[in-house]
Fold each of these.
Amino acid sequence: MRSEIFRLRKQLQEGNKSGEIEKMSSLEKTYWKLMEAQHSSEAKKRIEELEQKLMDAQKEIAMLKRQKGGAPGPTTPVPTDDSEAIRRLKEELEEERRRRLELEELLKKTEAEMDQLKKDIDAERKKSLDLSNQLKNLPKSDNKKETVTEIKEVTVPGGLSEEQLRELEELRAKAEELEKLKAKLKKRDQQIASLQEDNDKLNEEQVRLLKLLKQVREQLRILMELAEKKGLGDVIKKLFEEAGLGKTMADPDYTCFDRLYDDALRRMDKQRRMEWYRLGNTGEPPPSFKAVAPYLHPSLIRKECPDESRGQGVFTTRCLARGELLLASPPLAAVQGVHQDALADSLADVILERLAGAVEGLWWIYAEAKCPAEDRAVVRKLQKRARSDVRDVRQQVLRIIAVNAHAAQLQIGNSLELSWWTLVH
């Protein structure tokens, strides 16, 4: 279509013959009218074919129902091949109608472009006549050389370049993909709604059964009491044991306290998972991270640090005793794949915050009666430095972390694991 228009413009610039221009304009107009009629006739024909197929299918279904005999009662509709075919025919019919509307819209736009082209052709024709009149009015002279004027290409506003056409095609493809995704999302939403409805029904059924079970157990208990009053308690008890009702009667009820306890355990596990993923880890947390007591590491080997430049430290294997200082933060326990310097800085920030009392979670386990003298001195010294000079405390904390990291490397490789410690100056 656009190549024909460009050819028409080129011929308009090369010649000034008004008869030829009018002929090309009429041919172009005839061409577009034929294209419009062809698209409209094809769309109408396709719609008529689909409607005829739909009517034939409905007639065939009605005939099959009559052959089966009798009007069926109100039963649940069962999808058949005929109903599926009718549905497909309806979808094809709607698709053809939509395409017809798109073609009509495209034809309207094309007619608008044609009107604009006609206006431009009339303007160029007027310019050509003006130039012809000016040439006729010029004095004839054989000595003067003929002046050749270069004809510039005229760009008609409203046309689309090849790049714009490509962008338009890409947008159309994306729009189609978006419609498909919307359809899938709608289908998934329906599935989710159906599953949610089934889940609600199952929950209601579960509650009903629990109430029924509780009622039956209460009735059996009343029966046992009545039998004991009448002297038949041993007989009923023996019958219950033979029928397997003894365990049922002895099983405690699932009370609200049990539910709250289970909910607390679930929340603790969820919090540990959040801390694990917050560190940038993937997969399931290790068992050491998901321990029952997440703030206490069970043990480390008793080994003295051989590197004097890192300080002197003693690592214990016994359980944490009262009076010892515990440096343990669950987000930074058993971390692998993180550089030690970056991890040490992060841990120092966390510890300084918790020393200042901003965040709960760093535990100071202190008892004057059982605490060794050197441990109490370390505790008092760190607390005093935290109040007086935060920078000195940070250096001390980094030194403690270095001692822990070095001893942990001797036991578990390249990971950083914190433990309870005793620092000796």
Note: The beta strands are 312-314, 422-424.
Amino acid sequence: MNERQRIYLTVLFHADQDIEEHRHRMAATGRWDSSPARDWRRIAFNNAYGPVASALRARGVYDSGAGSTLAALRERGLITTETAPGILRDPGLGMAHQSRPCRRPRRHRHPTRAK
């Protein structure tokens, strides 16, 4: 396994542990969900602003080679992957979205007249 693959596997492991910790906290507060681990252990990778992508970006390995890296981990039996047909979605933003830079409204200064 190369360094890039080790980074991906480490980030995915920490994401999995975060999900598990969240489930334990929810159960401790009485909000137990009995869904099987095969459902709740899924880690979304297609969200460019999600925790996995952010962690990979911080380590300098979030780029167009992500698919190949995930495939290499899958081929080694270290992870399982699944894809769904259709449009990739960003759960926080909806189906297709276009981002525009946020601009502060321009304030017009009106000349004041001297009296």
Note: DSSP finds four helices and no strands in the chain.
